[in-house]
Amino acid sequence: MRAHTTRAFSPLYDVVVIGGGHAGCEAAAAAARTGASVALLTHNIASIGAMSCNPSIGGIGKGHLVREIDALDGVMPRAADDAAIQFRTLNASRGIAVRGPRAQCDRNLYAKAVRHILRSSQHRSLTITEGSAEKFTLSDGRVTGVQLASSPKGIPADLRAGAVMFMGSKTEMGGRRGDISAVGIADALRLNGLKLGRMKTGTPPRIYADSINFEGIKEEPSDANPVPFSFLTEPSSMLVGRKLVSCFQTRTSIATHDIIREAMAAGLSPEYHSDNAPRYCPSLEAKVSRFGDRDGHVVWLEPEGLDSNLIYPAGISMSLPEQVQQRVINSIPGMKKGKIAIPGYAVEYDYVDPTELRPNLECHRLPGLFLAGQINGTTGYEEAAAQGVLAGINATMHVWDSHPDQHGALHGMSNFDCLTDGYLRLGRGDAYIGVLLDDLTRLGTAEPYRMLTSRAEFRISLRPDNADRRLTPIGREVGCVTRERWESYKKKQRIVEDARNVLRKTKASRVDFGRVGLERVFDGCKRRGNESMYLGDALLRSGVSLQAVEWVAHLEAELQYKPHIERQRVEVDKLRRDEGLKVSKEFDYRRVRGLSLEDFEKLSKEKPQSLGEAGRISGVTPAGILLLRAHVRRQLGKRKGKRKGKEEREVMQMKDEKLLWLGHV
């Protein structure tokens, strides 16, 4: 990173990135790796890499995105590995496709790691500077730069570029605590006709760690064998010289809920202009209102860093007066004497309806302008970073395509289907990033969008372990993958392929399997005394695992999931063929067995008239559509059966009448 550089700051850049949050850092880095000259404009260089909300990376669905960011050589995974103070794999007892790698991070170490990566030689064409963007520069209806409200010495007030990316998250006065809002750019978006909406989010109070009694509440230590986010990080090095900490779990109490209800009844909860709050990370007020029958909600006590005395109590974001928040904290087990260091608060902000964007994240109305991050209606570091990587790559490809005489064009030169349109368009079968972008740009969102494994039709094949196999060759073709990563990827693939061949060709007897404790692979087979089995076939047997190292886990998953992946594709093909199936507007969705509460609420509200319309409702999961399809199909089958039975009875009646007539004659 060059905040102060001796090189003259050129008024012409290939790409200008506005905003130094998670989306902005990934976008600027991806554009620089792809070969563009990049200017990253931020209000405060010191805030680059800041974890403004919870001090963690990953989780179910989110961890999949981080692995995919890494496969494209992104910043977040390596920074998280460097800054992690606790590692846990969520859903560890379930199949590898739905496991969620997660890391608790030291805030300061994470920000330091991000800045270090941005300073590295792979991002040598990236220049970072402080400044405030006021409005866009337009030429023939295209965005060709930004005008700065204030700019440092040597920075032109009119900053020209081949493409501009806005990565803002808060476009309201104040924004997050300590942040400067981006009101000028929000006004510019509105004036240029983009459809804006309102959302809200919040954060919990921070608690002094030395005021908490951790005795008697559940401890959650780090995993003994951590799984890193980056494919470049050696798992064996994860514990070398690293101090790991525990998180703790407690719960709100009935007394907590009574305090919340009392405060809300007294009108102490702020009035908001928007009801579009996060569904999967609701405020404590929303939890008490929505789930009034529960006697408690889980609260995770997460350390903010090795040298920090602050605890982040995940699960209790609130915006009530500080004295009420203090009473709430003291009503929770373990925090009877807990002291608030920073009170919780809520923020309302503008966002752009993501259906205003093309699948490459470029604005329909403002060509040359790319949007990524919370401005598109998403929530979470990981969703923002994933958008940033794709926006950075696509902004660079936009510049290349606009000036083929200077850069050469990629259009029509790729062997990958996702690159044949002249930009990188990951599909739903390619990556969770593809699911994210398709959901946003095709369906839009009415609430802060969070990635979940249930949103993906092909989640068996979109696993964390094979993200590099799916995306690194694509990243290599567009130029955003470094030589170091490419060589590491090829080495791993050679090892995996050699092992695959060994498993395919090597047989072992019942006795051999028994020696290593795997005699159960022959359960259900007839005992002949000389049974043998290929090692690859043995992995398909229930209860057999060879997960000694990560690449073995990857190979095992490839072999075990192969038949399931094929069945999954068949189901999705059936769903596409049945998009025209009619659904009555009066249909009662309570009749669909297994439908989730969210799917039920959204389908009941929107009342789609066909399966295709149901599939285009934002937030309705593929699993929900499959359940609806199965129900509609069953009903059709019953009606056809009744109709067929009636027709058969009519034919038999006609035959009987004919026989009676012949007998009479």
How would the blueprint of this fold be written?
Elements lengths: L11 E7 L3 H12 L4 E5 L13 E3 L3 H10 L4 H8 E7 L9 E6 L1 H13 L6 E5 L1 E8 L2 E9 L7 E9 L16 H9 L4 E8 L2 E3 L9 E3 L26 E5 L2 H12 L18 H7 L7 E6 L6 E5 L7 H9 L9 E3 L2 E8 L16 E3 L9 H22 L1 H4 L24 H12 L23 H12 L4 H23 L1 E3 H6 L16 E3 H4 L11 H28 L19 H10 L4 H5 L6 H43 L1
Parallel strand pairs: 1-2, 1-9, 2-6, 9-18
Antiparallel strand pairs: 3-5, 4-5, 7-8, 8-9, 10-17, 11-15, 11-16, 12-13, 13-14, 14-15, 19-20
Describe the structure.
The chain is α+β, with helices and mostly antiparallel strands. Strands 1, 2, 6, 7, 8, 9 and 18 form a 7-stranded mixed beta sheet that branches. It has a 6-stranded antiparallel beta sheet with strand order 12-13-14-15-11-16, covered by helices on one side. The chain has a 3-stranded antiparallel beta sheet with strand order 3-5-4. The radius of gyration is 28 Å and the shape is globular. Residues 1-10, 169-175 and 657-665 have low confidence and may be disordered. It has 19 helices and 20 strands. The longest helix is centred in the last third of the chain and has 43 residues, at 622-664. The chain has helices at 22-33, 62-71, 76-83, 107-119, 183-191, 254-265, 284-290, 322-330, 381-402, 404-407, 432-443, 467-478, 483-505, 510-515, 535-538, 550-577, 597-606, 611-615, 622-664; strands at 12-18, 38-42, 56-58, 84-90, 100-105, 126-130, 132-139, 142-150, 158-166, 196-203, 206-208, 218-220, 247-251, 298-303, 310-314, 340-342, 345-352, 369-371, 507-509, 532-534. α6 (254-265) runs antiparallel to α8 and α12 packs antiparallel against α13 (483-505). It starts with 11 loop residues before the first strand and ends with a helix. The protein folds into 4 domains: 13-51 and 113-200 and 348-460, FAD/NAD(P)-binding domain (3-Layer(bba) Sandwich), CATH 3.50.50.60; 206-345, Beta Barrel (Elongation Factor Tu (Ef-tu), domain 3), CATH 2.40.30.260; 506-560, no CATH class; 562-664, GidA associated domain, C-terminal subdomain (DNA polymerase, domain 1). 44% of the residues are buried.
